[in-house]
Amino acid sequence: GESVGLHLPTLSVQEGDNSIINCAYSNSASDYFIWYKQESGKGPQFIIDIRSNMDKRQGQRVTVLLNKTVKHLSLQIAATQPGDSAVYFCAENMPDRGSTLGRLYFGRGTQLTVWP
Amino acid sequence: GAGVSQSPSNKVTEKGKDVELRCDPISGHTALYWYRQSLGQGLEFLIYFQGNSAPDKSGLPSDRFSAERTGGSVSTLTIQRTQQEDSAVYLCASSLGWQDYGYTFGSGTRLTVV
Questions:
Q1: In chain A, how many domains are there?
Q2: CB pairs under 8 A between A and B
Q3: Tens-digit pLDDT profile for residues B47-86
Q4: Chain A residues in contact with B5 (beta carbon < 8 A)
Q5: Which of A46, A107, B50, B112 could form a disulfide with A90 if both were Cys (CB 3.0 to 4.6 A apart)?
Q6: Among the CATH numbers 1.10.1200.10, 3.30.70.3040, 3.75.10.10, 2.60.40.10, which is that of B5-98?
Q7: Is B41 within 8 Å of A101 when comparing Cβ atoms?
């Protein structure tokens, strides 16, 4: 479902450690997933995406893993830096939702705090 | 333009007043979305425009909320008779169109109803 009315879970890590942010998605028919990063006072920014025909995709310092069996998505950030502190959202499309074919459904978000 | 532009960046209004929030999408993007984000919370979908199709208004919380998109470009979100619970950041995003999920978000309008 959509993220309404719930406070964000949090994750605190030390600089240099790896971070793993998890997301459970809701629709087994979803075939496209995106992670967004939202820094304070800014709109969400695209980080990385993955299609359902893949299990893993790597970017620069980030890796997204998709487990369709349990409808689970994770974002791994290597060597986390203070600049990675932000709220991270996962999003899925839902191609079987009729007129809402063209839009993303966002998860609750996770607040990542990186300590020096 | 180079990005999605929203105005104003901040708006303080008195309870009961009407407000208009503006979104200028990226040139050539046919899809436009409005989301609402309350303090410390996630993204709540409001409305979605795709080209000349009828908008998907399924997320509008009440009939005090409306939006239009003129000429397939600029969009205005109007909130009538504002209430304190309308206080939030209103985010606009655009994308190339049908089933293109590469949203580009604006920085939002922070609305405070006092």
A1: 1
A2: 81
A3: 999 888 889 898 999 999 999 998 879 999 999 999 999 9
A4: none
A5: A107
A6: 2.60.40.10
A7: no
